[in-house]
Amino acid sequence: MTKRTSYDFRSSPRGTTSERTRRLQEYQVIGRHLPTETNPTPSLYRMRIFAPNTVVAKSRYWYFMRGLKKVKKATGEIVSLNVIAEKHPLKVKNFGIWIRYDSRSGTHNMYKEYREMSRTEAVEALYQDMAARHRARFRSIHILRVVELEKSDDVKRPYIKQLLTKDLTFPLPHRVPKISNKKVFSAHRPSTFA
Fold this sequence. Notes:
Elements: H1 17-21, E1 25-33, E2 44-51, H2 54-68, E3 76-83, E4 93-102, E5 107-116, H3 119-134, E6 141-149, H4 158-161
Antiparallel strand pairs: 1-2, 1-3, 4-5, 4-6
């Protein structure tokens, strides 16, 4: 048996380095009940699930199928599982997310808005936000719907609306001096705060 001195990421069970840098990915999982004599062609059920890897995506799929359609992993099968890629990953977009989460006092419905570059980043921001504000964990949050808000009229929340104003500018309290004004020697250190 040879001793392994260096760690090879390609043979890692977790996948490539780019997969590990992102916390969540969006998966499309399609499954169904196993064919029986009474039902030889069962219906297919498709879900879009946000999960860190395929194992968690399948697990969440069966969790929801058990509650929604009374189909268990033992009596069902997954037909297809693939990653959904973002169409325009370099464009900033507004997202509306409908969720249901369990808190210490009960179950609540909620709608939140995020300004991110992809659906997965918006959902990651949602999980961080819910953990910070409501102490809600990953297991207790059910994402019902994620929608890209294309029109500015669809944006409801003021914390996102304030970013949509035309010719938006931000204050620059820390100003770096231009090279043309820069001296080689100075009697005192220049102040960069306006």
